[in-house]
């Protein structure tokens, strides 16, 4: 039987876009191209280069399942090692040959049964299928603090780190205490002459071990059997499941255990009672994205470090003026103030069937059927799209599961079962209604704190169920939602 030769365009050569490239090759899609706006692969790990950059997922699980890495030097993977892992993997799997670098997509329009793509460079292309692997946290959020232009020192966002600026012996202020700010403080305490951490809302900190692997251990991990044993998949999956149980049911034993670990960490690690109270959040642990750190509390108690909890009035030529009138003189100011988490593919202009624009479809908030596809946007599939699982586990696992689902959609197109695939409005609305209802039961909603997990209406923009349910939803599309009958046994044997 002849199959249709699909032209597949992937946008983004970060972790998810590279995964798409590898899997497309594996499935024999010869007419596939990845467009990347920058000149290297790596996505978030290319863009974030701040001191202390670390992923809080255990190293050996922060890889593609088909390309484990025995060489991690620590229990938690350092950012530069993650970037080199992705660069190595891209080369090994021939993904580099699929990528057109320095091409930023400006618009995509569904016209005449294809995606018509326009790039900033003037280049254009068409595709039968568009895969958006454009990442989640990639547009820096700058705080609305007056006076930044007056500052005479260096000032930059954590994701735009200026490596020409000397740090040793300088007076450094870090604004923001999410995962990023906390990691930067841990890295700079002891290096800066004076380090100030500007905290608007205290955060709970989960303790974690981050020891080094010895040379001998790393040599032993080259044996896949040893690595597999050390990784202990069952234990890891149990931890992921416990985490998802905890966030979806704050009264669960799993949640109570995590809450206790955070509270004990604060009580046992911070010696000065006055500092301890300033660090103590008044919200439930887990309600903001949980921060894992082996050393933040030690760092903030370093003699050269200060926690500043008085609000910021403005930035001036010589530093930061707080609301009590005090001027904090600084040489360097770092905004660790997060990202526009609701941007996804935007500001790219995407126009679907019948002239519907993504801007309009997402005017209230980003939404998608099972985080992957949208009605009126045929043959557009997202990896790590809106309202998918986010949390303290590997986004690589999420993308790999989403690929299992997308692969099956592609196969129906390739087999000629249909020309275009988009979920129905009814299926998408039913999914979104169920998701929002379930999201109201999560600790992100009930915990009473603000975070980038919440949309404009205060509803968590996330998968509100456990990980097991996500994996099972991704195992096979509900074909009725796409207006297709289930594939026959014959079709399925072709896919396998
Ligand atoms: P974030 O979690 O959004 O935190 C932003 C911080 O900036 C918050 O502390 C916020 O305070 C503060 N802030 C924002 N505007 C401010 C202002 N005008 N004045 C004072 N403070 C202000 O951003 P992030 O730390 O960059 O982390 C974003 C996400 O990246 C994480 O949640 C995580 O998903 C990912 N990440 C992961 C790792 C990892 O280890 N896997 C490491 C780094 C980042 P409020 O709380 O008061 O709003």
Describe the structure.
This protein has 496 residues and is α/β, with parallel strands linked by helices. The chain has 2 domains: 287 residues, FAD/NAD(P)-binding domain (3-Layer(bba) Sandwich), CATH 3.50.50.60; 142 residues, FAD/NAD(P)-binding domain (3-Layer(bba) Sandwich), CATH 3.50.50. It is built from 16 helices and 19 strands. The strands form 5 sheets. It has a 5-stranded parallel β-sheet, with helices on one face. Bound molecules: NADP nicotinamide-adenine-dinucleotide phosphate (NAP).
Q: Main attributes?
A:
five-stranded parallel sheet, 16 helices, 496 residues, binds NADP nicotinamide-adenine-dinucleotide phosphate, alpha/beta
As for the number of domains, it is 2
Q: Main beta sheet, described? A: 5 strands, parallel
Low-pLDDT stretches: none
Mean pLDDT comes to 95
CATH class of the largest domain: Alpha Beta
- CATH topology name of the largest domain, in short, is FAD/NAD(P)-binding domain
Quote the distance from N terminus to C terminus. Answer: 16 Å
Inertia-based shape: globular
Q: Tell me the β content.
A: 15-25%
**Helicity level:** 25-40%
Number of helix segments?
16
User: How many DSSP E strands?
Assistant: 19
From the 3D coordinates, which CATH architecture of the largest domain would you assign?
3-Layer(bba) Sandwich
Distinct ligands: NADP nicotinamide-adenine-dinucleotide phosphate
Radius of gyration: 23 Å
- Order of the strands making up the biggest sheet: 3-2-1-7-19
Q: Spell out the CATH superfamily of the largest domain.
A: FAD/NAD(P)-binding domain
Class derived from helix and strand content: alpha/beta
């Amino acid at each position: 039987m002849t199959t249709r030769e699909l032209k597949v365009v992937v946008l983004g050569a970060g972790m998810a876009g590279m995964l798409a490239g590898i899997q497309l090759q594996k499935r024999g899609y010869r007419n596939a191209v990845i467009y990347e706006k920058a000149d290297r692969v790596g996505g978030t790990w290319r863009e974030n280069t701040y001191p202390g950059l670390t992923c809080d997922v255990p190293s050996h699980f922060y890889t593609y399942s088909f390309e484990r890495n025995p060489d991690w030097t620590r229990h938690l993977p350092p950012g530069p090692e993650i970037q080199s892992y992705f660069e190595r993997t891209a080369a090994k799997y021939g993904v580099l040959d699929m990528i057109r670098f320095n091409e930023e997509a400006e618009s995509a329009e569904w016209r005449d049964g294809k995606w018509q793509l326009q790039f900033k460079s003037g280049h254009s292309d068409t595709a039968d299928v568009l895969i958006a692997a454009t990442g989640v946290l990639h547009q820096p959020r700058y705080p609305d603090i007056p006076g930044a232009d007056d500052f005479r020192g260096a000032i930059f966002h954590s994701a735009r780190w200026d490596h020409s600026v000397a740090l040793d012996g300088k007076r450094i202020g870090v604004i923001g205490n999410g995962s990023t700010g906390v990691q930067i403080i841990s890295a700079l305490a002891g290096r800066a002459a004076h380090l100030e951490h500007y905290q608007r809302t205290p955060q709970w900190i989960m303790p974690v071990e981050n020891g080094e692997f010895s040379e001998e251990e790393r040599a032993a991990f080259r044996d896949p059997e040893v690595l597999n044993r050390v990784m202990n998949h069952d234990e890891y999956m149990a931890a992921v499941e416990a985490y998802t149980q905890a966030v979806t049911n704050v009264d669960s034993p799993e949640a109570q255990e995590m809450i206790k670990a955070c509270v004990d960490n604060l009580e046992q690690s911070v010696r000065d009672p006055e500092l301890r109270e300033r660090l103590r959040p008044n919200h439930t642990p887990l309600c903001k994205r949980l921060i894992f750190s082996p050393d933040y509390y030690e760092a903030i108690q370093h003699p050269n470090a200060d926690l500043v909890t008085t609000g910021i009035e403005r930035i001036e030529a010589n530093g930061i003026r707080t609301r009590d009138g005090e001027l904090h003189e600084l040489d360097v100011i770092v905004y660790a103030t997060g990202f526009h988490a609701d941007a996804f593919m935007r500001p790219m202009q995407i126009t679907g069937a019948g002239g519907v624009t993504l801007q309009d479809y997402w005017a209230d908030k980003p939404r998608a059927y099972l985080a992957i596809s949208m009605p009126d946007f045929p043959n557009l599939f997202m990896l790590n799209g809106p309202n998918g699982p986010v949390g303290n586990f590997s986004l690589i696992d999420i993308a790999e599961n989403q690929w299992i689902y997308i692969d099956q959609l592609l196969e129906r197109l390739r087999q000629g079962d249909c020309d275009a695939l988009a979920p129905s409005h009814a299926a998408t609305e039913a999914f979104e209604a169920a998701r929002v209802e379930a999201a109201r039961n999560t600790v992100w909603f009930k915990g009473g704190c603000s975070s980038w997990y919440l949309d404009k209406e205060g509803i968590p923009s996330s998968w509100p169920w456990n990980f097991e349910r996500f994996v099972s939803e991704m195992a096979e599309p509900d074909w009725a939602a796409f207006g297709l009958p289930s594939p026959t046994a014959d079709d399925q044997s072709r896919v396998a």
